[in-house]
Write a structure and sequence with these properties.
By secondary structure, this protein is of the alpha+beta class. It has 14 helices and 14 strands.
Length: 415
């Protein structure tokens, strides 16, 4: 859709001020100045600059596909009065009627543009969103594709609330910005997706270190941390008696129940292998006794919440004959090493060290001692003696000396 060709000659000669304003926006889009910009801030900045350039934009909506397991896309909205808003569109297995009856679908199917008057005798409200925009005072609407270098067609739309809507030269002004706009949005979107994918699969502690290049294949980084080992009960029986879909469904419910309180408490899920979960609460360098104790309490509270979340599940939350869902939890503390292991062609980011092995050995004792949550002496030292109850010394598989194990006391549970 060549909007420039539709401009009357009288409007093409509006003078150098328009060209200067266009050039300034193009330069702003082309030069990020060495800084990341969130997509919401980018769309808001575009809206403010267009308004200052005499392009009466009252609302911008930019819809981009996403690769998060839970979301098929995200929409970044800017309104001249209400400001910015991010809307996450959850993934559904069947294409919904909302998408089918939207301008996004028209643009995704290959349309070069979609222009609609929203008020007056030429109004054409043939999509539900256009009715909503008209009710919000919008008078004119333009949707355009953002053609990314991977061949995908993304979406951006502009709406005006001026009684006369957009003039032809104002539409052309927007069109001339599209090459720089789509490049800048693709850059920011790609960086955001890379961060998101790495955090989803590596965790929030490892992801930024991998991106920054801090991690090499043959070297690790030693840190002090609280280590959490979790193991689901009855997993072998589950895999023997249920189909793969039921097993995945039960595991997803289990992972959600355990992971959410851990992440909220500042922990990082490092590994989820079958029914086992390995999480870590890094102890920042320079932490004093008070800081370490507060972290230990947060870790204990997260574990209690995870156990309670599993206990709160009902038969309707799980596949048939899976309920109740139980797990054993162990908290330990010590030095661990983060790093890459694997071949030159295929790496895995993990953490290793005696503290990791010992945490899982302690977890294995939860069955023998009849306690769903056990903690080590190293963890008890961080949490404080008043927050744990000794269960005596016990031998751990693969550990030379017997170790004193503890259960959490009420004070720690309530922290």
């Amino acid at each position: 859709m060549a909007l420039i060709e539709d401009i009357p000659v009288s409007l093409r000669a509006r003078g150098p001020m328009v060209a200067r304003a266009r050039g300034q926006i193009q330069a702003w889009l082309s030069d990020h100045g060495g800084h990341r910009t969130t997509l919401l801030d980018l769309i808001a900045g575009l809206g403010l600059r267009l308004t200052a350039a005499d392009v009466p934009v009252a609302r911008i909506a930019c819809a981009l596909r996403d690769y998060h397991p839970e979301f098929i896309g995200r929409q970044y909205n800017w309104h001249r009065v209400r400001g910015g808003e991010q809307v996450d569109r959850r993934y559904v297995p069947v294409v919904g009627n909302v998408y089918l009856a939207s301008p996004i679908r028209v643009i995704a199917d290959g349309a070069e543009a979609l222009r609609r008057h929203l008020a007056g005798p030429l109004a054409q409200l043939d999509f539900p969103v256009l009715e909503e925009l008209a009710a919000d005072g919008m008078t004119d609407y333009l949707a355009l594709p953002l053609l990314f270098s991977d061949g995908t067609r993304q979406f951006i739309a502009f709406a005006s609330d001026k009684p006369e809507g957009f003039r032809a030269d104002q539409l052309a002004f927007i069109e001339t910005l599209m090459p720089q706009l789509r490049q800048r949005i693709e850059i920011e979107h790609t960086r955001q997706l890379a961060d998101q994918v790495l955090e989803t699969y590596l965790g929030t502690y490892a992801a930024p270190r991998v991106v920054s290049g801090d991690v090499r294949r043959v070297r690790g980084a030693a840190i002090h941390a609280i280590v959490l080992a979790v193991d689901m009960r009855g997993f072998t029986r589950l895999t023997d008696t249920h189909n793969a879909d039921d097993v995945f469904s039960a595991l997803s419910t289990y992972y959600d129940a355990v992971s959410e309180p851990v992440i909220k408490a500042g922990g990082d899920i490092v590994k989820m292998i079958a029914d086992g979960i390995l999480a870590v609460f890094p102890i920042p360098e320079g932490s004093d006794e008070s800081d370490s104790r507060a972290l230990a309490w947060r870790a204990a509270a997260a574990v209690r919440q995870a156990a309670d979340a599993l206990a709160a599940l009902g038969p309707g939350d799980l596949p048939e004959n899976v309920w109740p869902l139980r797990a054993g939890f162990a908290l330990h503390a010590g030095e661990i090493t983060f790093g890459n292991v694997g071949s030159r062609a295929r790496l895995d980011f993990t953490l290793i060290g005696p503290a990791v092995n010992e945490a899982f050995r302690i977890e294995a004792m939860t069955k023998l001692l009849g306690q769903p949550i056990l903690v080590s002496a190293a963890y008890a030292e961080l949490a404080g003696p008043e927050n744990v109850v000794s269960l005596g010394f016990h031998g751990l598989r693969g550990v030379r000396e017997p170790k004193e194990l503890f259960m959490l006391a009420g004070a720690a549970n309530e922290a």
